[in-house]
Task: structure prediction
Amino acid sequence: MKFEALEKKPDLIIMDHRMPIKNGMEATKEILVLDPKAKVLFISADVSQEDKVQAIGAVGFLEKPFPMDKLFRVIDGVLKG
Result:
């Protein structure tokens, strides 16, 4: 996993639900096992995932599509909070 290999961990991970190798839920779980303090912001057009990802520890959920200013506000809030 690329996250594990990073020397300096990111302040925030923006995770999509549908990805080619594994889905975002699986990747988020793996990241949070490696670093429980990691902040993962989940984005998806599948709103049925919102409760699930927050239950596993994501710091937020954005439903696609969204305007960029909303993304920036959410990122700002997560990083300040």
About this structure: The longest helix spans residues 68-80. DSSP finds four helices and three strands in the chain.
